[in-house]
Structure formats: C-alpha cells, structure tokens
Design goal:
The complex is a heterodimer. Chain A is mainly alpha-helical. The longest helix of chain A has 27 residues. By secondary structure, chain B is α/β, with parallel strands linked by helices. Chain B has 2 domains: 177 residues, P-loop containing nucleotide triphosphate hydrolases (Rossmann fold, 3-Layer(aba) Sandwich), CATH 3.40.50.300; 84 residues, P-loop containing nucleotide triphosphate hydrolases (Rossmann fold, 3-Layer(aba) Sandwich). In chain B, 42% of the residues lie in helices and 24% in strands. Chain B contains 12 helices and 10 strands. In chain B, helix 6 packs across helix 7. The termini of chain B are far apart. The chains are: A mainly alpha, B alpha/beta. Chains A and B meet through helix 11, helix 12 and helix 13 of A and helix 2, helix 3, helix 4 and helix 6 of B. The complex binds adenosine-5'-triphosphate and magnesium ion (MG).
C-alpha cells in the first residue's frame, strides 16, 4: 500500500493522462462531426475530409481539458478531503471523459446536423429513451425491483399532458409537474400491492399493471379517445413564441429575425429533451449518493439486512417506484408534445421491454451504460434499415452477443458513492 | 444485575414444529450472554423473534428502558426494533450488501440519522451545510469502528469481495454503526481461523468494557463461549435446559447429556 502510494503518478502526469483520454474520445466523436463534411457536387452528395479543422479541435480539447482540470482541482482542494477523488481510478477518469464528450456531442449535434431532419429526429428519440432508461434504472438498476410495466407511467404522463392541454388549455410547462406528480402517484399505487413481491412475481404483476393501463386507455373512449387516441396536442412554444410560419402574435422566427424553417421546432424539441434528460441525470446521480439512493442499492443487495438495520423497506420501495414513475411521466409529457398525437399503441409491452433492455444491456445501475445501450437499441435498427428483412435478426444477434460477451452489461463496474481513502483506492 | 431484556414464556411454532417451547430467560445489562445448544435447538429462531423477523405464537419479550418502564417487543414490527429498541443483529449466514463498499455498508446502517438530516432527500439534494455535517459525522463514526475492528484498509472495497472472516467483522462493524444498545451476534466465530477467533474474543470484551454494550451471542465454539461470556443459556428442543456462569454450566450434568448427547450415544454404541 505504502509503496503504491509513494509510486503514485504526480498530479501533472495524471492531468496529462486525463487530458489525453478526453482528447482521444473527443477526437473519435469529432471525426464524423468535424473531420467529415458532406458537400453537393453536381447534384450528388459527396464526403470531404477536413483534417486541419479536426486537428485544431483536438488541440482545443486537449488544452481546454488541462485548463479545466487545473481549475477544478484548485476548486476541489478547498473542499473536504474525500471530495478530492478526482483521480480515484483510471476507470473513473475514462468514465468522466466519456460522459463529458457525450455531453459535448449532444449539445453540438444541431450545429452540424441542423438541417438534417432525420438525424435530429433520431437523436430526439434517443433522448427520450435515455431519459426513460435513467428513470427505470432507479427501479431496476438501483433498487433491484424488476418492473415490466414501466411504460404505464410514460402513458400516464403523456395522457395527462394531452388531456390537460386539449381540454383545459394547460401549457407544456404547467402540465409537466402535474404529470410528474400524477405518474409518481401511480407509481405508489402500483408499489403498494406489490410490496411483498420480488423477482418473477413482481415482474408479472407489473407487467399486468402496464397492460391494464393500456387496455383502460383503449376502451375508455369517452375519456381517452380509445384507439383513436388524442390529436391536436399543442406543441411546446419557445417561451411563448410559437414555431409557426405565421401566428396571431409574434412567432419564433419573426422575433429572432430568422427565415422560417420547420427545423427550428425540431431543434428546439431536441434541446428540450436533452435538457430534461440532463435534469434527470442530475437528479438520479445526486439521489444515488444520498441516504435514499444508498438504501435503494442496499435493498437490491439484501432486503432482510436492511430491515435488521432499522430501514423501513416499504418507504424505500415506494420511493424508488415513485421516482422512476415521475421521470417516466416527464418523458411522457415530452413525447405527447413532440408527437402532437398519442394513442394506446405507443404504450405497448414492447416499449417496456425496450426500456428494460436498455437498462440491462447498459449494466444495471450505470448511468453511462444506459446512454450507450440506448444508442445501440435506437440507432442500430435505424442503421439497419437498408437490410429491412434482416433488421430484427441483426438486432437480436447484437443483443445476444453483448449479453454473451458482457453478461453484466456494457458498463458493469459500479462507482462507490463515497470513499474513505481516495488515494489508496487506485492501488491494485 | 438488572436485566435489559426479559423473554417470558416465548413460544414459536411453524406448522407442526415447535421451534421455541415456553422459553424464559433474561439478558443482563452490560454483560455478555451466550446462547448455546445443539443444532436445531431454536437459537436462531429466538433471535428472529427478538429482532422482529418472526411474530411469536405466544409469550412476551420485554425491553426494560433506562427509566424503568417496560416495552413489549413482540408488538414492535420489523425495522422498528433496530430503530426504537436499538437491538441490532448479525446473521448466521452473513448478510452484507455485497456489491457496495464496506464504508457504504456502514453508512446504510446510519440511514435513520442521515435521512433525517437530509430532510427526506430535500436538504441532501440542495447539499445544505446541515446535511453535509451529518454526512461527515456518519463517515466519522464509520471510520472509528473501522479502525477499532481493523478494517480501515478495506473501507473502499466491495464487501462481497472480502475473505469470509473479514466479512464477519464487517457485519459486526455495520451493526455497531446502527448504534445498538443490545448487539445480537449469530455465530460470530463460525468459519474464523484461530487468530481471527482470538481477535473476536478481544473485541467482544472491549465492546462490553469500553463501550458499555450489552451482548447476546449464539456460538458453537466453546473456547469463545467459555472465555468471554458472563452468563450462558443452554437450549435444547426449544427449551432452556440450564443457565448460569460458564464454569457452572460446563459441569451441569443435564447440559453434558443434551449438548454432548450425540457423542455419549456414539460412545455407548461402540
Ligand atoms: N421459518 C421457518 N419455518 C419452518 N421451520 C423453521 C423456520 N425457522 C426455523 N425452523 C425450525 O425451527 C427449528 C429451530 O431452528 P433454528 O434455526 O432456530 O436452530 P438453531 O438453534 O439456530 O440451529 P443451528 O445451530 O443449526 O443454527 C428447526 O427445526 C428449524 O427447522
Ligand atoms: Mg442458528
């Protein structure tokens, strides 16, 4: 231990290594965004390379990361010792680097693909799944409660917004908290009867719950429009400015003096889901390191031991169900606002299964893993479109391969929520 | 010595099996009490009744509060025993939160205090100074018990990855972090090597002498029982067949017959 501590790399070496790791990832991500550009050549589309721009990006990332790291370290030294776990392990550094690069890529995407409707649309769908994955991660990944009816809460959120907006004229931002609260309530309603169930039994009951919600929506025509769904759901506006060619008041493009483009709304929706997903991420990662989150994980590990330590497992389970359901409710509101039309068809068991696959594939409990898995599950079928006939085959094969190679999911390593000895933990 | 807990005509039946059959005993305050008896005598079942995992078929378990009042623990449900009666236990088959680090295990044991400080996650989400202080104190308490049990080096290791003997100690440290008044250990020496066993003896006496805890433990390892306990209760077929100081119990003919019965019979057969 002591020898390892003495031989530990200097802060400078660590910083260089960290910056290199970030640059490597950034470079990979920047390759398609910055290194390549499509141009029109005589009516056909051609790809050109822009190596100099790419190299400059790399340099910017490298030095930017060094500076950021130095600034962050200076900030952290003013905090208690255990907070200084910045270089706890290479693994954590890589994770952080990957997270930062993904965030940068997400924020910059419309800058490079702003005129590509297909890319923005797919990315928005990806955003919804990432958010749903992070929400379900609370229930399945952290608390270890196998929930096969998660899509029910997504439906509750979507229908809440659809009804509140079309019937009572509520705006997106007004309906968002209401839908979240209602979905959380449904989470508790489901949670209560299944408190004593675990594993397979819990899975079956939650599956039933998901189907009940869908069947009710399908048959209660006077309330939900039945199979016809609800249409004409208002799209979110940019702080009161609608994304329309013309409107009674001022429109978005008039206010900003832009030429009207249908892409404005799509890009706004994209940024909206990125924001919602980031808020979800912030909430879940913060909850994870709080007593609530630790109790969720403890519940997953051993419920009896929890009880023996005075933990009320009822509260712990219900809080996990409610939190997960609330996040699905938020995602549902966004989904309804984006589509403008919803029907029970969007909330089938297949959706629940996809979201669950994202959590399991990502590595239960791993936030970054969810992003990677969502990307695999959303983008892969899109990429495979040209092999239409073999698409599901390739999809299935990919899932089987991942589970065979990494049975614990893409990113199975768990980051501790707190450390006693930040310096020592990097020693092998 | 005044008792901390009185078990009064306790009966626990499972279908046709009577695992505890009218058991009465007292756990003296500030002392170490050992419960011994052959396999299936009902020792673990007694623990399960005492710590709220089973609801006894009949009988009472009284906790004598410091102010002289009494409280029937059989009316207190599950998690409230650890919380309100401050009776915390370990398990015969270790039950750690295997995927979580040792330190995290010890923080989960302080869930109550931390949740209150985090105002049910609100203050925690806002990272208020009050919550930060509570968290620091919780880590400090964990750090003290880790040091006392020689576990500091493993603080950041996943509990499930540790050797068996170390896991036993982690489970005791975790129980201690729940600030018990009565600590119940179910076969703490099982699977320990001689060195670890000696350390356990020292730990148990230190918990009694330096920390003023009341201890109740089930054990098959007679060297541990004879060395550290002040009071021994012998059970067989759900009943108490003897009790007293270790030396007296060891010479009790009834105990020798019941506890060493199998060996006697083997000797007789030969
Ligand atoms: N939940 C249960 N359901 C049915 N029978 C049980 C249950 N728990 C314990 N028993 C029975 O009660 C009796 C006493 O078991 P217990 O576990 O208390 O024994 P023990 O004294 O702890 O033995 P050991 O030394 O082997 O741990 C056994 O016959 C056991 O089979
Ligand atoms: Mg036992």
């Amino acid at each position: 231990m002591t020898a390892a501590a003495l031989a530990a790399p200097s802060p400078l070496a660590l910083r260089l290594r960290d910056a290199l790791a970030v640059t490597l990832l950034g470079g990979l991500l920047a390759l398609p965004f910055i290194g390549l550009v499509t141009v029109e050549e005589g009516g056909a589309l051609a790809v050109r390379t822009r190596w100099s721009a790419w190299a400059m990006t790399l340099a910017a990332i490298f030095f930017g990361r060094l500076a950021l790291r130095a600034a962050l370290d200076a900030w952290h030294t003013r905090r208690p010792a255990r907070k200084r776990a910045a270089f706890s392990s290479t693994d954590a550094v890589l994770r952080r680097a990957a997270g930062t690069s993904l965030l940068a890529a997400a924020l910059l995407l419309p800058v490079f693909f702003g005129d590509n409707r297909y890319v923005i649309d797919t990315a928005t769908t990806l955003g919804i799944y990432v958010m749903l994955g992070w929400g379900l991660n609370v229930v399945v990944g952290l608390a270890g409660l196998l929930d096969l009816g998660y899509v029910a809460f997504y439906a509750v959120g979507a229908y809440t917004y659809a009804l509140l907006s079309t019937q009572f004229g509520w705006s997106f931002w007004e309906a968002l908290p209401a839908a979240g609260a209602l979905a959380a309530l449904f989470g508790i309603l489901l949670g209560y009867p299944v408190l004593r169930l675990r594993g397979d039994y819990l899975a079956i009951v939650t599956l039933g719950f998901g189907e009940i919600i869908r069947v009710v929506l399908l048959n209660w025509t006077s309330f939900s429009g039945g199979p016809n769904g609800i249409g004409g759901i208002p799209r979110p506006s940019f702080f009161g400015l609608p994304f329309a060619r013309s409107a009674e008041g001022q429109t978005f493009h008039e206010f900003f003096g832009l030429e009207f483009s249908p892409m404005h709304r799509l890009i706004f929706l994209y940024y909206l889901i990125v924001t919602l997903a980031l808020l979800t991420h912030a909430l879940v990662s913060r909850l994870r390191v709080l007593p609530t989150g630790r109790a969720w994980e403890a519940l997953r590990e051993d419920e009896i031991a929890c009880k023996s330590l005075g933990i009320n497992t009822t509260t712990v389970k219900l809080s996990a169900f409610a939190t997960g359901a609330m996040l699905a409710g938020f995602a549902g509101v966004f989904f309804a606002a984006r589509q403008g039309f919803i029907s029970p068809e969007s909330f089938t068991f297949a959706e629940s299964a996809t979201i669950l696959a994202i959590v399991v594939l990502g590595g239960m409990g791993s936030q970054l893993g969810v992003v990677l898995a969502a990307a695999v599950l959303v983008v892969l079928p899109e990429v495979g479109r040209q092999f239409a006939d073999y698409r599901m085959l390739v999809f299935g094969a990919a899932m089987v391969t991942i589970m065979a190679v990494r049975p614990m999911g893409l990113l199975a390593r768990r980051e501790p929520t707190v450390r006693l000895n930040p310096a020592r933990s990097s020693a092998p | 010595m005044t008792p901390l807990v009185t078990v009064d005509h306790l009966v626990m039946r499972f279908g046709g099996i009577t695992a505890i059959d009218g058991l009465s005993l007292q756990v003296p305050r500030g002392a170490i009490t050992a419960i011994i008896g052959p396999n299936g005598a009902g020792k673990t079942t007694l623990f399960n009744c005492l710590t709220g995992f089973y609801r006894p078929s009949a009988g009472r378990i009284l906790l004598h509060e410091d102010d002289g009042s009494e409280r029937d623990l059989t009316r207190l449900k599950g998690h409230r025993i650890a919380r309100e009666a401050r009776i915390v236990r370990t398990f015969q088959n270790i039950r750690l939160f295997g995927g979580m680090t040792v330190l995290e295990n010890l923080l989960v044991a302080q869930h109550q205090a931390l949740t209150r400080a985090s105002r049910f996650a609100l203050a925690g989400l806002l990272h208020t100074p009050g919550y930060r202080r509570a968290e620091r104190e919780a880590i400090e308490l964990a750090r003290r018990w880790l040091a006392e049990l020689g576990l500091t080096a493993f603080a950041d290791t996943p509990a499930g990855a540790l050797p068996y003997g170390t896991q036993r100690r982690v489970e005791i440290a975790r129980a201690l972090c729940a600030r018990p008044r009565l600590l119940c250990l179910d076969e703490p020496a099982a699977g320990l090597n001689p060195r670890e066993s000696a350390e356990l003896k020292a730990l148990l006496t230190a918990l009694r002498d330096a920390h003023g805890l009341t201890l109740l433990f089930i054990e098959h390892d007679m060297s541990v029982v004879m060395n550290v306990s002040d009071h021994v209760v012998v059970m067989n077929f759900g009943r108490k067949i003897a009790e007293g100081p270790p030396e007296a119990v060891r010479r009790d003919p009834e105990v020798i017959r019941a506890y060493l019965g199998e060996e006697d019979e083997e000797a007789a057969d030969a």
